[in-house]
Amino acid sequence: MSRSDCAGGGTDAPLVSVIIPAYNAEAYVLDAIRSVQAQDYAPVEIVLVDDGSRDRTVERVRAAAPEVRIVSQPNAGVAAARNTGLRAARGDYICFLDADDGWFAGKLTAQVDYLARHPDTGLVYHHWLVWEADADGVFRLPAQPAPVTPGEIVPALSGWIYTKLLFDCVVHTSTVMIRREIAAAVGFFDTTLVAGEDYDYWLRTSRLCRIDKLAATYSYYRAVPGSLTRQPKAVDYEYRVICAAFERWGATAPDGSSVPPEWVQARLAKLAMDFGYGHYHRGCPDLAWRAYLTALRHDPLRWRAWVYLLAARLKALLAA
Fold it and tell me: Between vectors from CA 182 to CA 1 and to CA 23, what angle results, nearest 5°?
């Protein structure tokens, strides 16, 4: 695509950088790239960060999409790959797209237009749908949901949304468009987080600017069995992210809106409980009883935590 292809016919449209981290993604990465190439906006640069793939990810992209800029690095995880992409990106606006996700038509035009009309907004995102395989295991491209009024937002999930993020990661990575200067101010993704690195990034962003959600659906998340987000973990990363944010910034957003601190304490207790349940029933009682103890630090009156703490501790002792 050339600049003259840009919506509105102008030649001074802002450059959009699309960062795609990829690790052993040969099965899906071209689908993701094609969904970018099918957008009606230009100029766009696609930066594929190959995170030490051992399959034919790079070869397939070079052969089928030679215009894509490929940056390779030793395998270091998705946070490090996105950071490499941020260093390489040249755009005024930056988008992220996971290698197994995709975009519907109109995404880039809608988001660029929104940011142009709303200079106080630093990041804009949108609805997404979960893309499940059909009964035969094949992922067939989903139909784009019906359009809504251009520029329409979801007020409840827009603005200074720090306090909303304390209770749910309402921003999905493949939906984001962020101004370059905001990304520079936020910094890089935390490479110590195996999961939740995106959640942490949006929380940090929410301390610096408005974040608005478009009401339209412009992306789809491929629900791949065994993907990273579905793997059981030895660390409760979501708890770690929320706990760090609460300890650093409390329960008040930069615009002065706030929630009762005890609500956040209850949220942390529930995260610890859920983590404990998973490990208790999967046969990891040592992690389980430690999680229940953590829950009780936030909510000493949670009786189920006391019951499961004792049961998990006994289970751990018997397994020793």
Answer: 60
